Amino acid sequence: MRDEYRVFYRVVGDLIGVNGRNLAVITVWLQRAIDSKFQFITLKPNRES
After folding, report:
1. CA distance 5 to 37
2. Is 17 helix (H, G, I), strand (E, B) or coil?
3. pTM (predicted TM-score)
């Protein structure tokens, strides 16, 4: 999603725990238009995988 102030990114991947267990997750980031810096928004389990 994009507007004049920011761009949102959805990143899908796996987190691997110290016990070797995988957790499928989705993270959401935004990139601010004013300075192009990234900001973390949220992390949630990926129920699709």
Report:
1. 12
2. coil
3. 0.80
